[in-house]
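Case study 2.
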Amino acid sequence: MDNENLLDALRTSVDAGDAQNSLDMVSVLGEYWNMRGRPAEAVTWFEAALAVPGPTHPLARATTLMMYSLGVLSNGEDPSAHFGPAIRGLAEVRWLSRRYPAVAEAGVGRFTNAVWAMIRKDKATCFRELEAASHHEDAWTRNMAVMMTAMFRENEGDIEEMVAGLATALDGFRTLGDRWGTSLALRGLSSYQCSTGDHHGALASISEALALIAELGTTEGVTHLLAQSALSRSELEDYDGAQQDLSRSLRMAEEQGSPAGQGFALIGFSTLARRQGRLDEAKELADRAYGTLDLMAERVAPQGQAMVLAQSIRVAVARGELADARDHSKLAVELALVADDMPVASGVVEAVADVELLAGNAEPAARFLGIAAALRGMRTVPDADVRRTAERLRTELGEARFDSAYDAGATLGREGAMDELRKRFDQTGRPDKPGSLRVGAGPAGTLRTTGSVEHE
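Prediction:
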């Protein structure tokens, strides 16, 4: 792609006030910028193109608005300042999809409506939109719909459907020769492999994904993949390799201005330090990871905060600090319940099991491990921390008592497990939970667009 020539053409269209051509050009460049890991540059030009007055085709405007909103949400800059404009962008796409059938039936309409529904926790609508997109005439749209469905199924703890969907999407993207789509599916596969304890397989998937991303000349997603690679390497006791992956991940996140990427890397460094007995360092690194969080943004999607707190719980347990561990547990469980993300929730609950073990409550600790399995949708030992906890509990309780307590939690099912967590941590009836969707009004962060949509 001749990026500079396309950028010159876009600049000329914006300066000339050609609204339609500006949208056409920025859509092509937007894919390039996002894949190159340059969302800030993409967002600036999306705003410029959308602000050009004049008539535009509904589908072109909807496509640009969706790309703008996704770029804003993945921007390394202050996410809380950009969340409102992103939501307003998606809201306009929804309006266009209701008014123009061509938008509603296109991938942009289906995907936007699915994401919007998931944000509002309207899961039935989300899966209905993705199901429709999975039968689209365009093969890429079909594969992306199947993969998005798989990712959302993982969040629900529907593991069998997730695994089947990932396999279908991965095969479909390979058939199309789409390296970017293949890399996305491999990321999802590596996450599943980690959760089952298959860290050799996870590393293979991550390595292939990184190779494909390198072929594309992009940095999109690399910081998180490196942090995930480090986790699997540490599970396989390749601590030097894990250290190298984390150092590269942190350096890239700092260069890109990505607080989220920095936070993931710092969690990894804290885990390495904790497992190697450097507990003061582990605590300092966990605190630094917490400092990267944008707590306003976390009110909407608190997965990051819950994940950092899970590490803080484990550090506090390792240091024998029961009061701190309990404080972290209460907030982490609250956030995990609000996030409604089963992989995150299960990780938090596994850390809570360590707190109960530290407190001398072995049977409740075993039950918490079972509850984590119910949330995740499968009985697995994902990492060394869980394996050590289970081994200690089996030694203390004996096989029969451990199995009984574990099964009592594991057989609750997802909803039953969540209900028990709410009761145990007194999370019922709270009027103002983190994650309440609030989009502030006012001039700060407002997206101003003056373009219009011409009727088809």
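Residues 428-450 have pLDDT under 50 and may be disordered.
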